[in-house]
Amino acid sequence: MPVPTERTCAATGGAATAPPPFARGPVLLLAGLTALLLVLISGRYGYLSDELYFIAAGKHHLDWGYMDQQPLVPLLAAAIDSAAPGSLLALRSPAALIAAFGIAGTALLARELGADRRAQVIAAAACALSPWLLLSGHWLAAATVEPAQWLAVLWPVARWVRLHRAGIRRDRLLLLAGAVAAVGVQTKFQIVLLCAALLLGVLIAGPRELLRRPALWAGAALAAVAAVPALVWQVGHGWPAVDMAGVVGGENDRLLLPPAVLLYAGPVVGAALCCFGTWCLLRDEQLRHVRFLGWAVLLLTAFHLLAAGRPNYLSGLYGLVFAAGAIGFRQRATARWSWVVWPAFAVSAVVPLALLPITPLPVAARHPQLASYSRMYETGWPELTRTVADAYRSLPPEQRERTAIVAETYHLAAALDVLGPAAGLPPVHSPNRGYWFFGAPPDGATELLYVGAAEPLAPYFAESAAVAQVRTGSLVNLAQGVSVRHYSGPAQPWSRLWPRIRTG
User: Fold this and answer.
1) Is 9 within a domain?
2) How many Å apart are CA 113 and CA 94, to the nearest integer?
3) Which of 286, 333, 353, 490 has its CA 20 to 30 A from that of 270?
4) Number of domains in the chain
5) Are 304 and 398 found together in one domain?
6) Same domain for 71 and 192?
7) Are 266 and 344 within 8 A, CB to CB?
8) Distance between CA atoms of 127 and 106, rounded to whole angstroms?
9) What is the maximum alpha-carbon separation in the chain?
10) Residue 44 is assigned to a structural domain of this protein
11) Residue 260 to residue 484: CA distance in whole angstroms
């Protein structure tokens, strides 16, 4: 007996036939316009501090693992910067395409769940106006890639369930999900939590036939094998990822996680669809066959509440809950209430657009409350580099040969590591987070230029003096006010000092 296909089931009127038509025109237009906006503003301010970190890690310290992420994004950032040095357009174009993929992928996931064309557009528009998803589409970072990877796991799983209901076996979809997870573990291990939550959700709510498919476990094995190099690196370095989890937990308040997740989703439409979409996944009869997805949302939220995770750790679920919420809204909205949709989207656009680096820098300097994230993390790096380079050149030549540069934070170190060589600076070190693993200055470095606001090294040197301070005008950012100090006469060599000054 031949195995049923989607086409034959549709022709015979099967129980779960082909999904509703894809809203190709409006969805692709929305995705294209979003990508175009992100490309147009790609060079508006400057590098994000994390982008500098990824470039420095990939170009100067490429490894199988890092304290706070895995090698995929550093490798990609370094490759792009090598091909087009200093080009923000080249560096950020992949991020714009990933953002567009997320918008279209959200609509496709909604379609697999049974959304009609209008519900698909609502879900896609909510994705486009999520403050976090839109802002992260402006730069190349692990936080940019992760939501797209989660979506690329959820879509084949949802499609497998729909086809399974129609009696169609399409197990290669499970292999596809496993292959995406194998790529995802090269970005961050967070995708493992998604896969675990999906499996637990299926165990709770079904369809348990999914757990009996060999392709599922073959995909899981593929992801596990892909994770081996990073796991070996973690073991060899004392599991710094666990230390990083402690750092993150110390930075975040558990009670603030739910409101922050809703704010990142969107102050009006996004937050409403987050709450309503989760409810629909758990209670709506039309979505009963994917109830395991609702359980996955609950499990992941509970985990990050207990672990005090960052709000963006749940951003990979936005496409799913937006899709479910749009379906529920379309089921219940009468003509009388349908008119509120587009005004709500118009109001929701204010916050995400305000976060993008659209405001001219002179205006941002006069109004520090505007575009705070971009202004804080994307400006000030040229001034920092010039200040440190001037201080370095002011040293006598014989001192420069014995001088190391150490920065207080990885933000400062990465900026100097990427921008410093053109200004004549040597490699930069930092005891902060993942940069500590890049290594200490050589023991022969008896002079030190320390770049930072704090002065933790004074007890370890005989002499110190302030030599410069970074000025970025009236523009407030991470570099503003950072001091440069000259230390000499170390009490012990760097190989002994480095383990004592590590910071989280």
Assistant:
1) no
2) 28
3) 286
4) 2
5) no
6) yes
7) no
8) 7
9) 86
10) yes
11) 36
* Boundary residue ending a domain (355, 390, 416): 355
Neighbours of 404 (CB within 10 A): 21
- Percent of the chain at pLDDT > 90 equals 81
Backbone angles phi, psi at 407, to 5 degrees: -110, 150
Shared domain for 141 and 207, answered yes or no, is yes
Task: Please give the Cα distance from 432 to 408 (Å, whole number).
Answer: 7
Tell me the C-alpha distance between 458 and 493, whole Å.
Answer: 15
> What tokens appear for 252 in the block?
């975040």
Q: Which of 26, 317, 267, 327 is nearest to 130 (CA)?
A: 267
Q: Is the pLDDT of residue 369 over 90?
A: no
CA 115/CA 98 separation, integer angstroms: 23
Q: What's the whole-number mean pLDDT along residues 154-173?
A: 96
What's the whole-model pTM score? Answer: 0.93
pLDDT of 17 over the 80 cut: no
Asked whether residue 12 is assigned to any structural domain, the reply reads: no
Per-residue pLDDT of 46-57, as tens digits, reads 999 999 999 999
Residues 197 and 130 in one domain: yes
CA-nearest of 319, 358, 326 to 345 is 326
| Amino acid (1-letter code) at residue 317 | L
Residue with tokens 């995400």: 352
Coil, strand, or helix at residue 395? coil
Helix, strand, or coil (residue 487): strand
Q: Are residues 294 and 429 in the same domain?
A: no
Closest CA to 105 of 188, 186, 30, 197: 30
User: Do 221 and 258 fall within a single domain?
Assistant: yes
Distance CA 142, CA 153 (A): 16
Q: Judge whether residue 149 has pLDDT over 80.
A: yes
Q: Which long-range contacts (CB under 8 A, 24 or more apart) does 479-482 make?
A: 479/379, 479/380, 479/381, 479/383, 479/384, 479/412, 479/415, 480/380, 481/453, 482/384, 482/408, 482/412, 482/451, 482/452, 482/453
Note the pLDDT of residue 15: 44
Q: Is the N-terminal amide bond of 267 cis, ω within 30° of 0?
A: no
Does any domain span residue 132? yes
Q: Any idea of the CA torsion for 140, 144, 148, 154, to the nearest 10 degrees?
A: 150
Last residue of a domain, one of 338, 355, 372: 355
Residue that wins the pLDDT comparison between 501 and 336: 501
Q: CA distances (Å), 386 to each of 390, 399, 419, in order? A: 6, 19, 9
Q: Tell me: do 202 and 131 sit in the same domain.
A: yes
With 50 as the cut, is the pLDDT of residue 170 above it?
A: yes
How would DSSP label each residue in 134-147?
HHHTTS-SHHHHHH
Structural domain boundaries enclosing 81: 21-355
State mean pLDDT over 266-289.
Answer: 95
Residue 144 CB-half CA count within 13 A:
29
pLDDT exceeds cutoff 50 at 88: yes
394 and 350 housed in the same domain: no
